[in-house]
Amino acid sequence: MARRRDPYRMAVTGRGRSAASGGPPDAGPPTSGSPFRVADFRALWSAEMLSAAGDQVARVALTVLVLERTGSVAWSATIYALTFLPALAGGLLLGQLADRFPRRLVMVLTDLARAGLVGVMALPGLPLPVLCALLVVVVLLGGPHHVARSAVLPDLLGGALLTRGIALRQVSVQVAQVVGFGGGGLLVALLTPSGALLVDAATFVLSAAVVGFGMRSRWAARRAGAGEGPAEGGAEPRTWLEGARSGLSLVFGHPRRRYLVLVAWLVGIYVLPEALAAAYAVAIGAGPAATGLLMAADPAGSALGALLFAFVLPARFRERWIVPLAVGAAVPLAVTPLAPGLWSAVGLWATSGACATACLVQAQAGFARATPTAVRGRATGVAASGLIGSQGAAVLLGGVLAQWTGPAVALGVFGVAGLFLALGASRLAGDAVRGVPGAAG
User: Fold this and answer.
1) What is the DSSP string of 83-96?
2) pLDDT tens across 386-405, in order?
């Protein structure tokens, strides 16, 4: 979020339209049409696709590299986990960099730093502890980069266009991940793991170039909050921990942001079907091809749900559909233990993915609108870290439960839990939505 006086009136959607969008310097961002009409969004999107594909190549390369050198599945799994876990701290502690410095500068410098570190990781014979340490730093630097990217987006796109932009990013990243995983295997086979890591380093350099030269609006280049009145979050934090506490306060001290971020974190638990797909296929007596179908069900449904929600559902209905969509994501999982076979499970999981991602898109868009640009980095860092944490917790706890009870039962339990949590979130919705200008879209 990847989601404040009447604070809602401070929900900055931008007073500086990109020069490429054709608006005057003091106009707001474009609010209709296609996000790709905005030059800054095209640059942001292109850079993100490069990074997303490169990240998957690196995951494949590192997993194979460590397995070849150690012969240990445990070490290989540890390296894979390290490509996710430090992002928790990266968003919470380092996300505030996106408020302290120009967001384009943050994205360019973190990309270049990661390119250099990944290049070092490609050196043959690098000791495993050093490889792990470099990997942790690379993932930590991803935190401020992702936060800066998310924080600048509402200043480039307004109204319904913001929701469409977020939906396109969600779908495109999933496609880039699939391409990256598939291409990563081929690159490792052709170039060796070290060569594949150098390809990943090159994607970071290209991403930095696209952002640095492709994003030209003042919103990309300016320091967050420059030229505005006092920010809602008060004085700029003096320490990293103070910044993290400020971010938590910005999110949980505000009814609307608290509601939206809790819904987004709830949606994080619906990644469990992908994690249990292989075990579920074995449990129903299906083969490896069934595992692929089951793993593809959630992302395929997610892509369809995001596009239908952002481009078909009228904007005036989107805000009120957040809780029903969260419920709609939970119910298919809750009835999974009753599914008669493979195809019914595929249909259920695709439906869950469609509802979950549509819900997440609207929660992210609403959260961005409800957060002033001057403090959006800190707030987004908290939201992003929590979403990663909820996904990690769901996979960990769901895996343990599946070991005890079976994958279908574990999915059913998580579905029922998600249903009750979604219904509980509906009690927060009234105060959060009531009287909020521009809530739809």
Assistant:
1) TTTTHHHHHHHHTT
2) 888 888 788 888 888 988 89
